[in-house]
Amino acid sequence: GFLRECVRSSEFTPCPERTTSMKPAKKDTKMRIRAFPMSMDEKYVQNIWGLLRNAIQEIQKKNNSGLSFEELYRNAYTMVLHKHGERLYTGLREVVTEHLVSKVRADVLASLHNNFLQTLNQAWNDHQTSMVMIRDILMYMDRVYVQQNNVDNVYNLGLIIFRDQVVRYGCIRDHLRDTLLGMVMSERRGEVVDRLAIKNACQMLVHLGIDTRAVYEEDFERPFLAQSAEFYMMESQKFLTENSACVYIKKVEQRINEEAERAKHYLDEFTEELIVQVVEKELITNHMKTIVEMENSGVVHMLKNQKTEDLARMFRLFNRVQEGLKTVVECVSSYLREQGKALVTEEDGGKGDALSFVQNLLDLKDRFDHFLYHSFNGERQFKQMIAGDFEYFLNLNRKSPEYLSLFVDDKLKKGVKGMTEQEIEQVLDKTMVLFRYLQEKDLFERYYKQHLAKRLLLNKSVSDDSEKNMISKLKTECGCQFTSKLEGMFKDMSVSNTMMDEFKTHVLMCSTNLYGVDLNVRVLTTGFWPTQASTPKSNIPMAPRNAFEAFRRFYLAKHSGRQLTLQPQLGWADLNAVFYGPRKEESSSEASSSSTALLSPRAPPAPRKHIIQVSTYQMCVLMLFNNRDRLMYEEVASETDIPEKDLVRALQSLAMGKPTQRILIKSPKTKDIEPSHTFTVNDSFTSKLYRVKIQSVAAKGESEPERNETRSKVDEDRKHEYPCIVLTHLVCIFVCTHTKDRRAFALPAYGNKCLAVRWMHVQEHR
């Protein structure tokens, strides 16, 4: 300031320095003040100090306009130069202390109950201004005496004296602290306070610490944080008692924002973080369990009622404190595991249950994925928790691999209603997420192979692209070893198509008799397909049997040394049926009007033709009624030699399925089938559809013995690959004729029939 102007306006004569060195002295370009030629006597020193003291006092009284700062600087310089720096330094301290004690402190004490902060702030500003002027006058003392004796510089000396004699003086110190704390508390209660006065007081305390925050910390910050902790401890109890969890966290969020904003406006910058930590500790950390477990409003309530925003707010708050997210994660995990365990245990083992089993898990995954990304910001801890919990409860149910395969099977079959290809793709992608959680992926592979085989052989796949896309997903997840057999199944289908083209050419060229059967054969590899090692029992009707023998001769001629084994459980057939009996509704109408009808001859009902698509086992049953009107269950079992479980399913589908698919009539009409129960052809069968597909009774998954057997085979090494073939699309015609004496079934000129066949290398039988 003004001292620099004083120095610039002074004209000092340079004084050459003496040297004892023999070397030529370097040119000295520094401006130096010439030393006085004689030493100062005591009286002269007292006179100079008297002038400086009076000047300092006038500066403190704001009467500095008539002072010559150049002269004052010269006098201070003279005292320091003649080794009277200590006297000058001590005198300065005494003068400043006297002024602060007698004038400033007295004024501040008088204002304790009236404009206290304003008076103190004015005194502080005046003192800073005066100390800047005094510092400039005594600049040479700062440069020489202060540095040589390692004492506080002039300005800092003034701060220390103001701190000790004014700010930290007894009741002033206490009153300042209480006033500031009281104003903060008033603002917390919603009152308007003088923020500028608080800001000035806090800045004063920071400056009085010189190079540290010690004064601010001791005189304000620590009491402020302690008072705030007590305040928010009491408020937390009140908030928890009066509010729900969602309201509580809103209030906490509001309080944190208020304190942060307050600190930004008038507290030291480092106080913001500390006061926010206090609020977080008292309102969040000390009550985390209580908040998340609040009845009818805590985390579980929010999850149950899709309170996405409330969960997001809780996540943001708990993410601020140590162990906060862990507390929320544990609560969410507990609820998720409870929900998941309930889903995987609420099933009876049926296929319908398998679909709902997986769909419910997918719905649960969608719910928690929504929370993950909309409430928990995709936080890694929550993502890992969800994955771990799903893996936990999915594998609680030993049927999970089978059910997951059944679910995929349902989505990849033809006739999935209400879903586009894109929607099916999305569902399969979600299903693959569940697949990742499966621990027994080898079991899934075994079941998936069974279900894929039926889709391919029975022509039920929605498309080859969808099938291959699913296999590609499995390959990406588990590697090529996992899907090699599945890919081999598709290769077998392609090879089979080529084989059948060659066979049909052979039939035409050689005029081979196929007994009216249009035969289609699939050549498979045993290691790829879920075929049976032993020949399944069943008596195939003569015509399809002879057609297959023709194919056998052709095949073995090309591949000598191989053995073919039929697998009828994988086949299907299209049968043309003609029904001559009256329609069901016609029979009812005739019965109701018999009392009034005239005795006149009635025309026979018109025959009704349908193509009926059935399984191989169902075909074997229906062909028996060509020569019989009525058959008992034990007779059907004896003549077809079909395994009991498969025979029961075939009869249930034909006689106890949907009303529009009941080709046979069972007597008595009970749910179970016993050896003495009888079956007859439903002459009144009718359908709006020309082609009628008889839906097989859904297999209720595997029975427990079957499931145990499957598990026992999972780890078996497949040392040999056995090719096999499946006979598919073998066409037969099923005709129903009706005479007075008997019902006859004839095998007309063509038909459709599907048989599964397996073959082996001869050396494997040695």
TrEMBL record:
MF terms from GO for this chain are: ubiquitin protein ligase binding
Instruction: Give the compositionally biased regions (Low complexity).
Output: 589-601
- State the Pfam families in the record: Cullin, Cullin_AB
Q: Which family does it belong to?
A: Belongs to the cullin family.
Task: Output the superkingdom of the source species.
Answer: Eukaryota
The region called Disordered is annotated at 586-605
Provide one Gene Ontology biological process annotation. Answer: ubiquitin-dependent protein catabolic process
| Protein name per UniProt | Putative e3 ubiquitin ligase cullin 2 component
| Domain Cullin family profile, chain residue ranges per copy | 399-655
Return the PANTHER family for the record: CULLIN
Q: Entry's PROSITE patterns?
A: CULLIN_2
Q: Which UniProt keywords apply?
A: Isopeptide bond, Ubl conjugation
